[in-house]
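Render this sequence as a predicted structure.
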Amino acid sequence: MVYVPHYLVSLNGDFITSGIVREIFSMNLRFGGVVGTGFTKPFVKPDTATVDGVAAAAVGFMGRATSKMCNVVNLKQVKVNRINEAGAYSDPTSSSKAVLAPGTLAHTGLPYSVSMAISHISTGRGPARRGRVFLPMPALAVATNGRFATADLPGVLTSYKTMIDEMGAALGAPLIVASRNGFSSPVVQLRAGDVPDTQRRRRNDLLEAYSVLATAVG
């Protein structure tokens, strides 16, 4: 396996209602050097100022109403790691910052397992040209046709782009799609669909309370 060296940014947090942690989430973004758009800063372990810049971008995203992040979703930690050619961490410890950044909008009643998928479309070819993140439990209403309101999607994408632009500026590298075969391409398009996505792991982790009704025998 040969990876193009890059930064892995992880956004971690949880869902809290009535003071109880109901679920956790994590989103991973990759920033790195590719042909024609390499690192504009030295590829070194991120210092405090760099991590602060990445974290500020994530906190800003959570705080914008146009991001449509629910107020029970809390961003708790931002981590930045260097990934080497073997696909492993380059440094023995992560560069991280603890934050507390909830979304701003009221819960619309969506289950914890529902998310909004944002696709990263790169300049590469084939299935490997795409990456994807899942925004946890967005504060989006679902219409009678089972879809998100399309009028909300451009605002989400614009806010998300602001976040990745700010992160890229802090790291000195563009958002990329990378794979284990040495493929790496800059992301040139963001795409969000109006069909709610389901995170199967979150669905499987939800404990069900059953109603039971006995039936006649014989």
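Summary. The radius of gyration is 19 Å. The longest strand covers residues 20-32.
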